[in-house]
Structure formats: structure tokens, C-alpha cells
Amino acid sequence: MLRLIIVYFTLSLALFVTNVFAQDVTSQNGVTATVVGGTTIAVSWTNAWRACSWQLSTKQGNGPWIIQKVFSKGVTQYNITNLPAGQKFSVKLAAKRATRWVDRALLTVTTGFKSQAGFIEIEPIDFSLHYSKASKPYNDTSSTARVLYTFQPATQNPDSKPLFVFLNGGPGCATTTNLFSMNTAPFTLDRERTKGHAYATNPFKWSVMGNLLYIDAPNTGFSYNVASGAADPHIRLLEFNSNNFNPFIDSANVVRVLLRFLNAHPSMRSHQVVLVGESYSGTRVSTMLNLLLFYTSYGTGEKIYQDTALAAEISDHLAKVFPAQAHAGTVPPFIIARQFGRQILIQPEISGPYQAQADGDDFEKPNSIIDQIASETGTSYTRCNQLGCNKETNALLFVYLVAERDPYNLKMPAKWTDELEAFAMQGLLNVDTLSRLFNFDVRTIRMFYNTERYDGYRYITDKDELNNSWTVGAGALSQKIQMLRRSQERLDQLLGGSSGNSMEKIFGPLPEYDDYLSGTNQAVFHSFMSNDAVLLKYPVSPDESPLFGQFFLENATLVKTFLTDAQNDLMIYSPGISEALKNYTSIVRSVSVKRGSRLQPIGRFRINYVPKSLAETATPSYVDLYYPYYPDSGHSVSSAQPDKLLQDIKKWLGN
Questions:
Q1: Residue among 191, 188, 220, 224 nearest 203 (CA)
Q2: I need a labelling partner for 28 at 20 to 30 A (CA). Which of 64, 217, 551, 652 fits?
Q3: CA-closest candidate to residue 581, choices 270, 333, 358
Q4: Where are the chain's structural domains?
């Protein structure tokens, strides 16, 4: 019955304001006020008093009454729109009898939150890299970045729930084609669960736990960069360098997106934030948290990365959330962790080269998991037998190319993950479907249109990047690029032609070096790993620098950590994570891990610290991570076991 009432009174609302938050409905003397669409109050009344006219007023908190509308005889409903989210309002309806106004009803309602989507534009940022505080800095400036986000409010009490911030990996991979599509959002694009349809409602949506913010990192997914003269291929080539693609400027700009979203939503500004990182975003989330927790050091140049504008923006945010501590001086990390104090890491890359080395050593042990795959498929696995051979990459290439299994889920054929992503991309590239998934009409997003992205770019040449010489040689990076290209070829075959309401037909055609959606951007991946800063030996390559594992270890002393353990993932091999952390001997005394099982699904992961080993925060004796086991999952835990993942996170949040 309630749904029928809401539908009746919201016929005049925009088509895509369909997400109803009617947790607050009040009535008195035949007058009803209902919160709809998050920040709209629908007021209805009867004409039983035979009034000459009606007067509708609102008051926020202890503020003055504001007359919203005076109606003539016969009008019986009105929608009060564009109200602030998460705020309590008094609503008063008065009827005019002869020459005086008589109050008919006084109601109180609280607005909710609306689904949103759009781009947040990040201006060019000046930053520098340092070996040490005394070293000569490497100065650079990023390009303009237009970063796509979509916000999905909690299904109940969004004004008091945490904000989950989702980020995927690569680097170069889209959040929208992965975590957003794979059973965390209100709708799912997981082809294993849509029963032949393009999408389906998701019974495992995380919005039952909190508000959801999905971000496509710069130049991934729907996000794109802007540079003057981008039509010139030489200009585009220069763009794919350390100025735009290194873990620090990438993470710093995602932090900017988060802070600017919070600043634009004052009622949510002080909510608890839970960062959710999958794959490479283990590194991204570790860097983001370190930037937030130790922001002053990143403003002064005491850390490897200096970004004075970011430090100032973080300081401004903290002054609004923790005014007493900010007034007294710098906000300390343990206070900052009251807001940014939880992280969910889904099959994460944390410690770069140490993790790769640990995985490779394990893969080459006698009777390893790779040997088991070779036995099952009747193939022959050749271990590294020459100088310079990368054990991890050698094993993954064997699984992918020879055994024809999927390294992201060893139980599946090689094409399985590509097919999952292609199915999701087909839905995301359909404008009507995307509007439904975002619960927001994407036709109203100005920065999607080709007329607004004249200097926009996504690639050096095009999505295949075949004119670049990245596969020359036999190095691990070149071999990884080969795998990415094979994956891109399969996606091209699976995606096929465009539909009648595709983005190109709605928003206009784009040049070959731009694109509306990229699942995995090869140029971004390559530029993170090989750029001017890396060539100058600054420790910023995720594959070569162990620095980001140190960030993780620092953060873990302040931030509660949820770490998945997926049995069937080879790309991020769970046993390698703990082995890799043992290499940080100046910080880590030992790591104790007990893997879970089907009977005991929560394992144990304890990091024992070297006393007084951390300079910027107190060093605990040990930290325990929440370590759930997923026996049927590969890399995408939210796809394989979304029900268990949701329940595990609920339990963890209760701790």
C-alpha cells in the first residue's frame, strides 16, 4: 500500500528519480508528508475544509519558517524539491478561512540521500618526488582529470551509515566493470546471476550495510584525462608518463575526489569511511590511507611525495570534522583514523616485488599448484631455467597460454574472466541500462558528450595500442603486456557492434584515441611501470618498489583491516602475501598465518612488529587482520561468493 501511495505522489518527478527512501512518512488531520527520491518531500492533503487557499511552509531545525507556496482552492498536493540531504524539516500546512490562516497540520520529516553520478574534475596538480628531504626534487605537473563517480545510498538510515569507497586495480582497470558490476551495487551485471537478462536486482547489495561510492580512477573505466592539443599523437605520448601515472598522483587525485564528494554533501562529511580495494588497489588504498593519516609529512616533503595542495585540502576537511583537534594544531593520525579507520582489501597487491618473488618461489616448489594444473590439463610446466626469467610471470603465462586456464580463477577456462567483463561492459555501454544501474539519467551528465571532450584522451593510439613496441624483449613487463593484449582482443570479439542507444549514438562519436569506457587501459598500466621517474630510480613502480608494503604496515597499526583469502586466485596468490611481508625485517618481527577452511571459514593473520620500529605512530606488539577464507573464489570474490563476502563484512563491522 505504501508503495502505491509513493508512486501516486511522485508522477511529476523526473524519470530516473526512482530510488525511494520512504523511511519517513508522517500524517496529521488528513495531511501526509512523504520523503521520496531522497531529498524531495511530497505533501498531500484533502479539500475537506473548503479553504479559500492553502499555504505550505518549511523550517529546518530552529531556523525561520519559509513559505514554499501559496495555492488556490482545489490544489491538494505539492512536491518540495532540492532540499539538503540528511536534514530534519518541519512542514506546516495552513488553510485560509475568511481573512485568517489556520494551521491544519505540523509534521516533521528527515530527508534522505539520492543516487548520483557524474564527473569530478581535478585541476592540474604540481607535485614533487624526493629520495629524501635533502635530495633534489623531481618536479612534475599532472593534467586535468575528469573522474567518474556514482553514489548509491544505503537502503535504510543513510544519514547514519558508513560510506564504502570502491576502487579496482590494474593499474588501469575500471571499478565500474568490476566491483560495481559484480554483486556489490543494487544491481548486478554478473552474467552468472542475471538469468539471461542484461542486469538483475542484486540480493547481495552492500547498500544494506552503508552508502556506496564507486570511483573509476583517473583514465580508467569512464574517467578520462584532458590535455590541450590532445589530437596530436606526440602530445598524447608525453601525457603517458610519471606526471599522470604513478601511485602517488593517482592516489592523491582519488583522495581529492573523495574529499570533494564529502564536502559537497555536508550531512555525510563526518561519516565513517571504509576504503575497498581490489587487486592493485591494495597499493592504491595503502597509499591513500598513508596520505590521509600522515598528511603533514606529504605537505612538507618529509616523505617521498610532496603535494602541498593536497595536504591543505586534507587539513581543511579535518578542521570541519575534528574542529577541536584542528584548532589545537595538527590532527594526529589516531584521530584521523576515527573517520578513515577501516579498509577492505580483496585479493590485494600490497608489497609489489616481494609479493611477486614469494609467489614465484611457491609456484616453482615441487608439487606446486602449477604442477597440479599441468597434471589436470595434460600439459608440461617448464620452470625458469635462464637468467632474468621471472618465476611468477613464467608460471602465469603457462597457466594462461599452455594449460588454457584462467589465472584469475584456476578452475575456469582461460576466457572466463574476459567473458564476465565483456558481458558487464555491454550493459554499461547502453545508455538506458547505465541510467537504470546508476539510478540516475546519465543523459544529464554534460561531460559525457563529445562536444565537452574536444581535448579528451584515453589512449596513445587506440585501445589496442598495437603501434607501440611494449612487447619487445622477454622481460616480465613485456610479457604482462602480451597477456593484456590477448585479453583486449577477446573483449573486442565479444563486445561486437553497438546498440541503438549506445553511448556513441547518444553522446556522439569519439576519435580512436578516446573511448567512453575502458575495461583495462594498457597504456595506463605500462605508464605506471615504466616512466621517467622510474628510469631515474625513484621508487614509484608498483612492480619494483617495496615502499607500498611499508605503507600498509604503518597503516595497519591504526586501521582495521579485512583481507580476503581466495583459494583459486593465482594473479594475487594469497599465501604469497604473508611471505612477502616477512621481508620488511626492520618493521616486522614475524607473521603468523593460519588459513581458514570450510568448517572454520575465518582464518588467522597476525603481524608481529619490531618494537619502536615506526617513526610517525606508536608501534604495537602485533596487529590481527580479519582473514576470511573463500574456498570457491578466484580473484573476484564478489562474483564467486557474494553471499559469504557480504555476511563476513557484516560480522567484521560489528567487531
A1: 188
A2: 64
A3: 358
A4: 2-110, 115-655
Q: Specify the 3-state DSSP secondary structure of 490.
A: helix
pLDDT attached to residue 279:
94
Q: What is the mean pLDDT of residues 590-613?
A: 96
Q: DSSP secondary-structure letter at 225?
A: E
pLDDT of 466 > 60? The answer is: yes
CB 167 within 8 A of CB 138: no
Residue with cell string 601525457: 239
The correct CATH number of 2-110 out of 3.40.50.300, 2.60.40.10, 3.30.1490.20, 3.10.180.10 is: 2.60.40.10
Q: How many CB atoms lie within 10 A of CB 201?
A: 10
Return the higher-pLDDT residue of 582 and 195. Answer: 582
**Sequence letter at residue 127:** F
For 299-325, how does the pLDDT look when each residue is reduced to its tens digit (9 = 90+)?
998 899 999 999 999 999 999 999 999
Which of helix, strand or coil describes residue 560? strand
- Domain 115-655 in CATH 3.40.50.1400? The answer is no
In whole angstroms, give the CA distance from residue 119 to residue 111. 24
Q: How confident is the model at residue 42 (pLDDT cuts 50, 70, 90)?
A: confident
- Residue 155 is given by DSSP the state S
pTM: 0.85
Strand order in the sheet with 126-129: 138-141, 126-129, 305-306
Pairing between strand 273-279 and 342-348? parallel
Q: Is residue 617 pLDDT above 60, yes or no? A: yes
| Bond prior to 171 in cis (omega within 30° of 0) | yes
CB atoms closer than 10 angstroms to residue 649: 22
